[in-house]
UniProtKB/TrEMBL annotation:
NCBIfam families: PRK09589.1, PRK09593.1, PRK09852.1, PRK15014.1. The lineage of its organism: Bacteria, Bacillati, Bacillota, Clostridia, Eubacteriales. One of its GO terms (biological process) is carbohydrate catabolic process. PANTHER family: 6-PHOSPHO-BETA-GLUCOSIDASE ASCB-RELATED, GLYCOSYL HYDROLASE. Keywords: Glycosidase, Hydrolase. It comes from Oceanirhabdus seepicola. This is 6-phospho-beta-glucosidase. Its EC number is 3.2.1.86. It comes from the Bacteria. PROSITE patterns: GLYCOSYL_HYDROL_F1_2. SUPFAM superfamilies: (Trans)glycosidases. One of its GO terms (cellular component) is cytosol. InterPro entries: GH, GH_1_N_CS, Glyco_hydro_1.
Amino acid sequence: ENKINQFPEGFLWGGAVAANQCEGAWNVGGKGVSTADVATGGAVDKHREYTDGVIEGKYYPSHEAIDFYNHYKGDVALLAEMGFKCFRTSIAWTRIFPNGDEAEPNEEGLKFYDNLFDECLKYGIEPVVTISHYEMPYGLVEKYGAWRSRKLVDFYVNYCEALFTRYKDKVKYWMTFNEINAVALFPFIPAGIKLKEGENKEQVSYQAAHHQLVASAKAVKLGHEINPNSKIGCMILYPLAYPETCNPKDVQAVNEMMNTHYFFSDVHVRGYYPNYQKRYFERNNINIEMEAGDEEILKAGKVDYIGFSYYMSLVISSKPTDKNSTAGNMLGGIKNPYLEASDWGWQIDPEGLRTSLNNLYDRYQVPLFCVENGLGAIDKVEEDGSINDDYRIDYLRKHIVEMKKAVTIDGVELMGYTPWGCIDLISASTGEMKKRYGFIYVDKDNDGNGTLERSRKKSFNWYKNVIATNGEEL
Ligand code: BG6
């Protein structure tokens, strides 16, 4: 029975990873090269390089990652030991369609995810699957210019059809594109696009975004036809922003910034382009090519829920500011004097999670799913092998406290919580191993050395108890 001062019965406690950041086995089982496989290692002050294909002698962290491909049984057993109700992972598109444009899926790839999902279900862990998480077949980049091309819609929908059909009885929760709104910020990772000299970044990325939005809507419709009980969501990066001052101009600057992100969730949830975005395109001479029927497609493919990531908040000013003033906060903005930041400059703001949940729920009135949240930090292994990650426990505890307020005090409909990188994995922004998020430590360093051995951090038992008490004991 649901009590109003508790997380609801059946709340999906779990954790999240992405295929390209943990699986490794980049060229095994018929897998093709993905965009993640051409990303080199970097650091907080050193951008990852996206090479033209895989180049001998370069270090590509995804190629082995934490070798989840060969360790998944032991890893899922550890997640089960923590009492996970769900496990969010993604499918590597290139395991299913190695180049992206094949007519038939690769059986060996499909089989791998059958095994993985079976392993989860064996422990009562519900798989939550992102269809495309920051990667795509590199073949589609080379041959078609990736999401620049309308052709990608069909390739993506074919891929979805293969997944929805095959995993119909195993997977109920899906998300179409990870952090789809990132395409307007950095187009290579979410959409495989490298800009050419003189190209208008907005024109290119919003056209790609249109293709992805159409593809997503088609996928939602198809997924519902194949399994009417499936729940298919979008996934957005939620960039909570505060005005620097009470100057109305700062508030307006925040609104304008937020609209560049809300555009994506608006289309997903409401099924049409919002007026502010159409006007923005007009004012800026951005011309989105649409096909006849696109409006109907968007309307017919509204999502069931919003999955979102939340790590930090930012501060926006109407005055021109030095973009680097919060070095490492990948979303820009200026420093918030009330907040502390992680070693990578991400400003830690638990109360902002409550605000974000309310903002999203008020705006859309659909269920929300917090599918990423967590602290990237350097962990130290003590002499006796223990890892005392109290800072991580502190971060997660404070966020869960605020999430609980949103649910119990504000009445937000929240499906679940899957902290990011529940097992250490490769960082997406920097390619590092030392930026760790996990409850489970993996012995591997930035240069690729290590035994890959897994061990439980202090947060492991802490989170196990959080789940066992449904968030009562924090
Ligand atoms: C999200 C991505 O942006 O943030 C993940 O969906 C990513 O793929 C996560 O790993 C944390 O970012 P980072 O750069 O610390 O790995």
